[in-house]
Fold:
Amino acid sequence: GESVGLHLPTLSVQEGDNSIINCAYSNSASDYFIWYKQESGKGPQFIIDIRSNMDKRQGQRVTVLLNKTVKHLSLQIAATQPGDSAVYFCAENRGSGGSNYKLTFGKGTLLTVNP
Amino acid sequence: EAGVAQSPRYKIIEKRQSVAFWCNPISGHATLYWYQQILGQGPKLLIQFQNNGVVDDSQLPKDRFSAERLKGVDSTLKIQPAKLEDSAVYLCASSTGLAGGSGEQFFGPGTRLTVL
Structure:
């Protein structure tokens, strides 16, 4: 079965609010995680990544938090906008190291932003 | 910089027919991936190439699926014969493949396959 899962399949927020999307993983050896955004009819688009030697990383309006103790990952989106409406996937790397990245994706969370 | 190109964007076939998908990765990217994404699920890796060699094809149904990347650039994925459960979006992605580099994979728009 899949080791990367999401707590909530759907999330609905008001425009301007902050969004938090959660992800649980089961492989404690995973060393790298990525969040992707997928809009309808498009391929996944990279948002932000984090390595296992970090517990927080910030980008533009997005923050990823990694809690290795409970094997939990979250994506925080500040001041959510209608353009943020999409399915969000977390993915963990199970590659053998070096340049070999092998991503395992979870099922995704559908984020809907209400105007 | 041009992104990952895929064609066709849509394909409808009947079961037991054959189909092929084409992918052109970002220029200079050594690693190329094919994923299958069934509706409502995350992408599942089918095969990974490093240049023209296969790194991982453990989840590729080899009795009906095949893929090649003969010159280490473009790649084709073929299904022969197709089954109803092959209906999905087939995504191609590429990455730099550099040791110590970012693991970011750049995805194409995908090919939506419908098997009737």
